[in-house]
Design brief:
Elements: E1 18-22, E2 29-35, E3 45-53, H1 57-68, E4 75-77, E5 86-94, E6 110-118, E7 127-141, H2 145-155, E8 157-158, H3 171-180, H4 189-213, E9 226-228, H5 243-248, E10 252-258, H6 268-278, H7 282-290, E11 296-299, E12 301-302, E13 305-310, E14 317-323, H8 329-336, E15 338-341
Parallel strand pairs: 1-15, 2-5
Antiparallel strand pairs: 1-7, 2-7, 3-5, 3-6, 4-5, 7-14, 8-12, 9-10, 10-11, 13-14
């Protein structure tokens, strides 16, 4: 096993042609969550569209539970949103036979924008997309920024898990070492799940990094398992299509593993490449199997939708784009800018 864990994974498009600061203020990192369908207006669950500024999702969920007089487990949300940001997202409260609570004055930086009933709770990952509007301040352009932004728009970016998954200075990975070796017990279920997820994410990122270094992020390797665009479905093995043509047309994506029990699914050249990377992490792979994780596949790349940029004032770059659930805005940012997160010094 490595003795330290680098989070500076290789970039797909090379060294960033600019540098600057993100999250200088919450409004510089705006995220708007969009549902895949609208609540129908009737049912035991009260769905809330909430605007929050400077608060994390779990804290807001606890405030909603407290105000409604319900158990925190009866509050659901589609996904976690950044604390140091201005975000809108949806929550649902299970209120069988109960009237809607007073949701005014929930606290500084929290505002309910909409409240509507629905027959089912909001499920994790139950949103269609997130819309980002990000401002990079103190911008210093050191190369051809316009060409880089065009490359991101047309060729996409690696589907890395963001650095927040690994904790401050990669601290979650040190705990993963102990947990997966059986030397650490974590009683808190949420914390335990987070540590396990950080290990699976790091292994995935390591395979993606190897594909970038080998120049095959967007190339078909013999034995690859491809994912159909816009879904989590894998291409059937008996397909006779031109795999590389499908990748070039963004119909399919190469994948990398989320480790756990089960078959590798890849073969030949693809299996050999993954096995070479994962050989350095045998205790983690064995630990994940022992803890009952199920092996899955995840796309190695994505393209931000509706990707646009402008310079609203000197020294500021504004990016706007839409991402599906489970992808990270920082994967877009790091390809065009060597950024400093101003919120970490607060």
């Amino acid at each position: 096993m490595p003795t330290s864990y680098s989070l500076d994974f290789p970039r797909y498009h090379g060294a960033p042609p600019s540098r600057g600061a993100i999250r200088t203020r919450p409004e510089d990192f705006r995220v708007d969550e969009f549902l895949s369908y609208e609540p129908d207006g009737e049912g035991e669950h009260l769905w809330l569209q909430v605007e929050k500024r400077g608060n994390n999702t779990q804290w807001v969920a606890r405030q909603l539970a407290k105000r409604a007089g319900i158990n925190p487990t009866d509050v659901s949300y589609a996904g976690l949103k950044d604390r140091h940001a201005l975000t809108t997202q949806w929550f649902s409260l299970w209120l069988p036979g109960k009237a809607a609570p007073d949701l005014d004055h929930l606290g500084e930086g929290i505002k309910v924008l909409r409240a509507v009933r629905h027959g089912r709770k909001l499920k994790r990952g139950g949103h269609q997309s997130n819309r980002f509007t990000l401002r990079i301040r103190d911008l210093e352009v050191t190369g051809d920024l316009e060409a880089r932004l065009l490359a991101i728009r047309d060729r996409g970016v690696p589907n890395y898990f963001g650095e927040q998954r690994f904790g401050l200075d990669g601290g979650n990975l040190q705990q993963a070492d102990q947990l997966l070796a059986g030397n650490l017990r974590i009683r808190d279920r949420h914390r335990r799940s987070l540590i396990i997820s950080s290990a699976r994410s790091y292994l995935f990122n390591s395979v993606v990094a190897a594909r970038i270094e080998g120049g095959v992020l967007d190339r078909y390797l013999e034995g690859d398992k491809l994912m159909l665009a816009g879904s989590s479905d894998l291409l059937k093995a008996d397909s006779e299509e031109d795999f590389q043509a499908g990748i070039d047309a963004w119909r399919y994506h190469p994948t990398a593993p989320l480790m756990g029990r089960g078959r590798a699914l890849v073969e030949a050249e693809s299996l050999a490449m993954e096995a070479d990377i994962l050989a350095r992490f045998v205790p983690w792979c064995e630990g994940l199997e022992r803890l009952g994780q199920v092996r899955e596949r995840r796309s190695v790349r994505f393209r931000p939708r509706a990707f646009n940029w402008l310079t609203p004032e000197p020294g500021v770059l504004e990016l706007s784009f839409e991402l599906p659930p489970g992808t990270y805005a920082t994967s877009v940012l790091r390809e065009c800018c060597l950024y400093r997160d101003a919120s970490q010094s607060i």
